[in-house]
Amino acid sequence: MLAIADQIKPTAPLTIYVLQSLGLRTILLTGDNVKTARAIANQVGIKTVYAEVLPTHKERFIASLKENKKTHGKIAMVGDGINDSPALARADVGIAVGTGTDVAVEAASIVLVRDELFDVVAAIMLSKKTVWRIRINFMFATIYNIIGIPIAAGILLPAGVQLMPWMASAAMALSSVSVVISSLLLRYFKKPKMQKYERDVRYRQWLLNKSTGIVVHRGIDNLPVNRSKSSILSSFKNSRLSQIVIESISAVKNAVMEEKKKATLFLNDEQTTNQNQKEEEIELQVTAL
């Protein structure tokens, strides 16, 4: 007996846990069958799964989430294959693994240089830190100018405080330099360590319950897998796929009937030819007598 399996990355469960602890909703979109998708979800702890989806279905799903931004917020897509490239381009933020295909890398907004899934967490934390630093700089520059401009205009002149032109120029330069120095502090950003989360008690509790409450959908009809056979049959009858199958079967039947007609005509012609040959032979024999 030979068994083949696509092993998940060792850091995948920890990555999903940290993303969920950050308040992010995680969804699995895969082209694998339902059983494989459920097995992967059990290992990594993703509760919402869409299996048997095509590349166009992934893009359509991302587009449907983006239509309701008030509920879902910003949409990020992580992938590394050619079939992920349409969804990566459609998402607000597309994250591609550097070891993936060139098409996925070109379609993504962010490319992870290493083949390390936990770098997704580092990228999100770095982006949050960057936005926070931008807001701090904007607030500092606003307060600095609110205080500095009136002083430079001479509001404190009655009190004997006066800024010389070179002082005003130096103060303006100091404002720009302080913002630049504040931005350079991002260079000291440190990637979060996995050991910190692995020792967390909440992570261990999450590992025990990560395989509960998983809901698997089929990507084509976006309905739960545990439907009755009658509902599946009725939905198939009403689908475009059933019409294509019926049209294909009717076309095959027509082709078979045409071949039968041709075969019948050929046999009739052959029988007529044989009968004519026999009559000619009889006439020749009579003539010889």
TrEMBL record:
Q: Where is this gene product found?
A: Endomembrane system
Please name the top-level EC class of this enzyme.
Answer: translocase
UniProt EC number: 7.2.2.8
SUPFAM superfamilies in alphabetical order: HAD-like
Membrane topology according to the record = Multi-pass membrane protein
Instruction: List membrane-spanning regions.
Output: 136-157, 163-189
Keyword 4Fe-4S on entry: no
**Entry annotated with the keyword Ion transport:** yes
Q: Which GO terms describe its molecular function?
A: ATP binding; ATP hydrolysis activity; metal ion binding; P-type monovalent copper transporter activity
Name of one Pfam family that matches: Hydrolase
| PANTHER family tied to this protein | P-TYPE CATION-TRANSPORTING ATPASE
Protein name per Swiss-Prot or TrEMBL: P-type Cu(+) transporter
Query: Which organism does this record belong to?
Result: Rotaria sordida
* Lineage per the UniProt record: Eukaryota, Metazoa, Spiralia, Gnathifera, Rotifera
